[in-house]
Write a structure and sequence with these properties.
Elements (H helix, E strand, L loop, with lengths): L7 E7 L2 E4 L2 E6 L2 E6 L6 E9 L3 E11 L25 H20 L21 E7 L6 H9 L4 H5 L3 E5 L7 E3 L10 H14 L14 E8 L5 E7 L4 H14 L5 E6 L13 E4 L4 E5 L2 E5 L9 H15 L6 E5 L5 H6 L5 E6 L2 H13 L5 E5 L2 H4 L2 H7 L4 E4 L8 H10 L3 E6 L2 H11 L3 E9 L9 E8 L2
Parallel strand pairs: 4-6, 11-12, 16-17, 16-19, 17-18, 19-20
Antiparallel strand pairs: 1-5, 2-3, 3-4, 5-6, 7-8, 7-10, 8-9, 10-11, 12-13, 14-15, 20-22, 21-22
Helix pairs in contact: 1-12
């Protein structure tokens, strides 16, 4: 029989500093303790769940003294839904810790010479800043442990309460229960009214909410996109076709929410919530919305990738364009180009834009967006950069003077890093949503490139996430 490990609990631990990814640092006899769900200045009893010779990881059993830096979270769902993890910190402190995180990971992991880092670009709007949000409908309501215990003490029927149809977010670490969200501060109205109204209408008409564990029920998810142009797109995800229910629901949305400019529905009979291999159908409207970045327009469909914070996205792309140091004579390669947003945004200052992306639907969107803006100096290709960027391709499109890369959180594939070293473009702009993997890639690119500029950008206030833009120049 396997021997159970004894719980290790450290009492009255002072949290000294911020580390990264939402974890802070304490030190005990020279040993570094990484603690989640605390902030510098807290004093807590910490239970360890991993312990090595020089470091350990743990979580707070109880916080004995709260840091002076803390503020009261503005959302009633804070700490339960799993989002907006830093609402207990003033925004100025959030920016300070994010800037520190970027510097620390670049120095520790990148191991390349760094210039002075520019101050992080904070968000003007720290509430209702997202243009896209997704909610889940569920027949299983998540009840926090403290509430559950109180219900037991009060003699309430916890089973019937838990088996309540709700709309919101899946609780952190729970795959089959949803937090019943009353008001979410991430996206402007009519999002909350839409979610609450649809859920109430569905309960009134006995529409079965989805049960993830049993793979049963009809109403699954909803996705809302709100553009700064005022256009609103709603996509309702259903487990199967039900003509009568669909007719009732769609008529309700049209009548009660006339501000929704286009309504779609997607039938998802799979066991996962991804819709990228499915085809959304238009119930009414044009099936897409149009967003703007500066004077550029972008057509956004239900499956399009687009920066989810429009205003900060504009700032991020402006920094990338400035770092590219364009004079109008350059051939710019936009790798991981997605729907072409960065390439189109910088196109006015470039001789030519060449975009490459593995997702064919994204390339179709990129071509449409270029046409929408009457931009003729762009070419977009579907495929892997490693396969596409050959000598024959360079002869056709021109060798890049500037390369812009905006990879997913995993960073650059090792073969792509090697490809960039082979191409030897004079200037590379690296836009990252994960400074740790960006730092790893810099260690490889440092063989031929020097880091000239660093600019962190906060795209997601009240979260641990941070974007970072780096300018690299070919060494002499």
């Amino acid at each position: 029989m396997r021997k159970r490990r004894q719980k290790v609990i450290l009492e009255d631990i002072l949290i000294e500093n911020y580390a990264a990814e939402g974890k802070s640092i304490a030190r005990i006899d020279g040993k570094v303790i990484f603690v989640e769900n605390v902030v510098p200045g807290d004093v807590a009893d910490v239970q360890l769940y991993k312990s090595k010779k020089d470091w350990a990881e743990g979580f707070p059993l109880r916080i004995k003294k709260f840091s002076d830096n803390r503020v009261v979270p503005f959302c009633e769902h804070f700490g339960v839904c799993g989002g907006c993890q830093w609402q207990m910190l003033p925004y100025e402190k959030q920016l300070e810790y994010k800037q520190q995180q970027v510097f620390d990971v670049l120095k520790r992991i990148g191991k390349v010479q760094l210039p002075e880092m520019q101050n992080i670009v904070g968000a003007t709007e720290t509430k209702f800043y997202r243009n896209k949000l997704e909610y889940s409908f569920s027949s299983k309501k998540f009840i926090p442990e403290n509430e559950f215990r109180q219900m037991l003490r009060d003699g309430k029927d916890t089973e019937s309460i838990a088996n309540t149809s709700v709309a919101g977010f899946y609780a952190k670490g729970v795959f089959d229960k949803v937090v019943d969200i009353h008001k979410c501060w991430l996206q402007a109205e009519p999002t909350n009214a839409l979610r609450n109204g649809i859920a109430a209408f569905a309960r009134e008409h006995n529409f079965p909410f989805y049960d993830f564990k049993q793979h049963a029920g009809w109403l699954r998810n909803m996705m809302v996109r709100i553009a700064t142009t005022g256009e609103i797109m709603l996509n309702i995800i259903l487990a199967y076709e039900h003509e009568a229910n669909m007719h009732l629901l769609f008529d309700f949305i049209r009548q009660q929410f006339p501000q929704v400019t286009t309504l779609l529905y997607t039938i998802n009979g799979k066991r996962n919530d991804s819709i990228y291999d499915l085809i959304p159908q238009v119930a009414y409207g044009k099936g897409y919305i149009v967003e703007r970045l500066e004077d550029y327009q972008f057509k956004i469909g239900p499956k399009s990738f687009f920066q989810t914070n429009t205003r900060q996205g504009e700032k991020l792309y402006t920094i990338a364009r400035n770092f590219a140091e364009l004079s109008g004579k350059e051939v710019v390669y936009d790798l991981y180009c997605g729907t072409g947003s960065i390439g189109i945004f910088v196109s006015g200052l470039a001789k030519k834009i060449v975009g490459v992306e593995v997702i064919s639907e994204a390339i179709d969107d990129a071509k449409e967006n270029a046409a929408l803006n009457n931009i003729a100096n762009t070419s977009f290709y579907t495929g892997d950069v490693i396969d596409i960027c050959t000598d024959d391709f360079f002869e056709k499109e021109g060798k890049p003077d500037v390369i812009i890369v905006d990879p997913p959180r995993a960073g650059l594939h090792n073969k792509l890093s090697e490809k960039l070293l082979h191409i030897e473009a004079p200037l590379v702009v690296y836009v990252s949503c994960n400074p740790a993997t960006q730092a790893r890639d810099l260690q490889i690119l440092g063989e031929k490139y020097s880091v000239e500029k660093i600019q962190p950008v906060d795209m997601f206030p009240h979260t641990h996430h941070i974007e970072n833009v780096i300018q690299l120049k070919l060494k002499n």
